[in-house]
Amino acid sequence: MEQHRLAQKIVRIAESIVRSLGLAIWGVEIIPSGRAVVRIYVDTPSDARDAKGPHADESAREAGGKGPSIDQCANVSRHIGLALEAEESISHPYVLEVSSPGLARPFFTLAQLAPYVGDDFDLKLENAQPELPDRRHLRGRLQAVGASAFTLLAYDAPENTQLSIPWDNVRKATLVPDLPFANITKPGKKKSAFKADATSKQALAASPPRDAAEPGPEAD
What's the whole-number mean pLDDT along residues 56-77? Predict the structure, then answer.
């Protein structure tokens, strides 16, 4: 719960900064450790990703409309790092990472799933579904998205097994990239060993780790 509140606070601080740089916040992930990792995913707005004309976002055109560039992530990292320090938002040592969601993008809200109906997903659940009581790790095709749950056609399960999964039962949901060389698991077939790495760390040098014990800049 504390991590959730901190993530909301970071979104509040970073949202206007990211928007002013022509991007949008996709989600915030906080990984606790001795020096916590604060990972902010940024993406090109949907209208920029879909744009084909001469005024389309430059990084969206270069990446085929798939996300921001490394330079954009570095720029966002610098601005957000300064804002977090100014507001003293995080009281313990942390490392700031700014990343594109990547091909195997993680999802942070149920609404984010809607444009991906028909795509394959990898899920880790808090609790197993009644239809598959021994499974908390699922892979399947997204069939529909409702107000509080979504429907998944589960692979490696009895044929046509469709699960209605409440979003609050999802611990982690990631997109399975549709790549020509990836042997994506289908119903009745052996599970593939393929794994895509979604996260690319960006510009840590631009936003070095901040130790809470270090004094901030003195006012003039």
Answer: 67
What is the CATH number that goes with domain 2-99?
3.30.300.20
* Residue 67 CA: distances (Å) to CA of 115, 153, 201: 16, 28, 14
Please provide the average confidence, as pLDDT, over all residues in the chain: 80
Given this model, what pLDDT does residue 35 score?
86
Go through the chain and tell me how many residues it has: 220
CA gap 202, 207 in Å, rounded: 9
The architecture (CATH level 2) of 110-175 comes to Roll (2.30)
Residue 169 makes CB contacts below 8 A (sequence gap 6+) with 125, 126, 127, 129
Strands 94-99 and 36-43: parallel
Nearest Cα to 151, choosing from 100, 178, 114? 114
What residue spans define the domains of the chain? 2-99, 110-175
- Output the pLDDT for position 16: 94
The pLDDT of 62-88, averaged and rounded, is: 84
pLDDT beyond 70 at 120: yes
Task: Record the pTM.
Answer: 0.72
Per the CB < 8 A criterion, the answer to whether 98 and 76 are in contact is yes
Q: Which two tokens stand for residue 186?
A: 């289908």
For residues 35 and 28, what is the distance between their CA atoms, to the nearest angstrom?
A: 17
Residues ≥6 apart with Cβ < 8 Å to 15: 25
Q: Is the dihedral of CA 177, 178, 184, 188 positive or negative?
A: positive
First-to-last C-alpha distance (Å) of the chain: 38
